[in-house]
Amino acid sequence: MYGWQVSDPGPDVRRAMTRVAMRVPRLAAGELLVAVDACGVCRTDLHVVCGDLPVHRPSVVPGHEIVGHVLELGDGVSGFRPGDRVGVAWLRRTDGTCRYCARGAENLCPGSQYTGWDADGGYADCVTVPADFAYTLPHGYSDVELAPLLCAGIIGFRALRRAELPEHGTLGIYGFGASAHLTAQVAIARGARVHVLTRSPRAQKLALELGAASAAGAFDEPPEALDSAVLFAPAGDLVPVALRALDRGGTLAIAGIHLSEIPSLDYDRELFQERTVRSVTANTRRDGRDLLAFAQEHRLRVEVTPYPMARAADALADLAGDAVTGAAVLVP
């Protein structure tokens, strides 16, 4: 089989990655061997390739928004059959025994491992996944539509929970890429008024098409005070901007795994009146199941730009250059 390895992490993604012939991964007990039918291109992949995140596995194959079909079952696996369509997401494994796992916060498990960072991911023909971390997928979506749900969708869903958006409240979304365009639809379906703040005119247009109440520049002031906000853009200088837009008691959730430096905050203007800043760390399997159940009940519009798997480096370069509207998806 063939796969893309991060051979030399750095800012030039085309130099950082190499497409190589690889052996089909060996199947361990409790795992599924999955043929990759589509793999979303996530900004976290970009952080892995560019070296923003420390190397966990040298020459790792990135990719963690994987839709595929089961080829083989490892010893002890039940509940799946060869040919089943399954999803493989970012969270690959937890220890299941620590105090975080015991209280339902497995996303904080110190022993957690991640697809496309600790183990080879979906920029390849095949991938393995522990069966307990594979997802059953909703019907009515194509493979390329489902792929972005497996990280962009799940992380946005968790970020919305962390933002504690009140019923029929006002939500600000900063940045409007793969995750944000799905999160906006979830919030709107639940009765929220959504204001999108992003520098991309194409993304602003998409936001309005999806039902946003307004769309403006990233540093603009929304037309009304926000009950909650989610920051998807990895830009720390937007943190004080979003905080100033919050109403009293409002919450800002920061959804990225990596963020540029946050400027000094003005306590009186940006934090006082019980405004809250919260980070988002990975996800739990419950988040994933709940998002996919929501997608089964509410037909989400998933904006995708397909790329052949052989052009994975081009897809990442386009993502880095903000040249992708919605989500890029690799198709073998």
UniProtKB/TrEMBL annotation:
The entry's family comment says: Belongs to the zinc-containing alcohol dehydrogenase family.
EC number, as in UniProt: 1.1.1.1
Example of a GO cellular component annotation carried by this entry: cytoplasm
Keywords assigned: Metal-binding, NAD, Oxidoreductase, Zinc
In its UniProt entry, the species of origin is given as Paractinoplanes brasiliensis
Q: Which domain of life is it from?
A: Bacteria
Task: Give a yes or no for keyword Oxidoreductase in this entry.
Answer: yes
Q: What is this protein called?
A: Probable alcohol dehydrogenase AdhA
> Molecular function (GO) terms listed?
alcohol dehydrogenase (NAD+) activity; zinc ion binding
Q: Kindly report, in one word, the top-level EC class recorded for this enzyme.
A: oxidoreductase
* Database matches in Pfam families: ADH_N (PF08240), ADH_zinc_N (PF00107)
